[in-house]
């Protein structure tokens, strides 16, 4: 239930590879659901019991219904399974069960967790370790959000991205954990920042030994463990940049613990926030027993994640980058990085706010970050699981932005608007269905070459 979600689809792929009969429901088709169909996983988009395969009705005692907490309570299929006595479980519960017998490396955080967990997986891919990865994004290295690698020896490592929504990550069984950020988010669930931070503390405490808990100093709070940073030399471990080469960074990892420095590392993606993610990933994998050479190779060969600072088109006069950024901190990270990389270029942004509740809670912060760009187009708010809130609109957000080059547009008009603009750097930002614009924009830019 909700099989088109990035985390749910990873779990579906896992069970499919284990030879279970797997199918699912989602609200709308997407490139991900099409790919699941191609892989042999049947996906239905009709909220109707009539579409259920007969095997699920005839042998319901053998059926496990896995659902995302984002499924609305009035969903017909969900209520059918519930009323008919099927075994139901949240995604995180099942993820905790399937990884319980492994050495679990788990990454949590309001932002940065997908990149960090994908870097961890890329490092393991350059080792001889047996591992399974359940990611919240499509890794360019693994070409999937689910990956399994055979290895030497008896150790089996699992990599999980720990989702804070609905406190789901408390169902996991981590042996090592990273918390990348505890910025306020999902306040419709938690009510306030303090409750959110308390939940992250609970999650980190699932790891028995504090030496196996890692947190980004200055971004993650109230975590008892080992701190790391991309720039703060008072952290237990911190990066020292040697030079920037192309889109990557050469660096060392120094420490205040009297340990030898980790020298001559290279991260193959830009951004100080990604450098911080790399430091956390390097530390956790090293402490879990992965070799330093594997860490070096994994970082140097990391190709990024789909929709995380993804270079969709790079031409002589135009660069197009797509990113999942949907929180003010994430907007700040990508916009400031792009400005540093291309200081003399005009930056145009198409932004799709995600959730009415998030837009309401952070409207002033969104406006502050979006004012940094030269040209801004705001799409209507992507509702996802929510109903509209009075007064919470893209137009209300626009009113807070003091820029003459900002306006609200319809998604269906975006391509034509771009065609009639002088684009130097284009960013598409958001976590809703703004990704449907990526292919048409890509085709347009390639058609101009």
Structure description:
- There is one protein chain.
- The chain has 449 residues and is of the alpha/beta class.
- The chain folds into 3 domains: 6-90, NAD(P)-binding Rossmann-like Domain (Rossmann fold, 3-Layer(aba) Sandwich), CATH 3.40.50.720; 99-300, Mur-like, catalytic domain (UDP-N-acetylmuramoyl-L-alanine:D-glutamate ligase, 3-Layer(aba) Sandwich); 310-447, Mur ligase, C-terminal domain (Protein-Tyrosine Phosphatase, Chain A, Alpha-Beta Complex), CATH 3.90.190.
- It has helices spanning 6-17, 31-38, 54-58, 76-83, 91-98, 113-125, 187-190, 193-204, 272-287, 292-300, 328-341, 356-370, 394-399, 414-419, 438-447; strands spanning 23-25, 42-44, 64-67, 87-90, 103-108, 130-139, 144-149, 156-162, 176-179, 213-216, 226-229, 237-245, 248-255, 262-267, 310-314, 319-323, 347-351, 375-378, 406-408, 425-429.
- Strand 17, helix 12 and strand 18 (375-378) form a beta-alpha-beta unit.
- The mean pLDDT is 91.
Concise summary:
The chain has helices at 6-17, 31-38, 54-58, 76-83, 91-98, 113-125, 187-190, 193-204, 272-287, 292-300, 328-341, 356-370, 394-399, 414-419, 438-447, and strands at residues 23-25, 42-44, 64-67, 87-90, 103-108, 130-139, 144-149, 156-162, 176-179, 213-216, 226-229, 237-245, 248-255, 262-267, 310-314, 319-323, 347-351, 375-378, 406-408, 425-429. The protein is of the alpha/beta class and 449 residues long. The strands form 4 sheets. Strands 7-6-8-5-9-10-11-12-13-14 form a 10-stranded mixed sheet, sandwiched between helices. The chain has a 6-stranded mixed sheet with strand order 15-16-20-17-18-19, sandwiched between helices. A two-stranded parallel ribbon has the order 1-2.
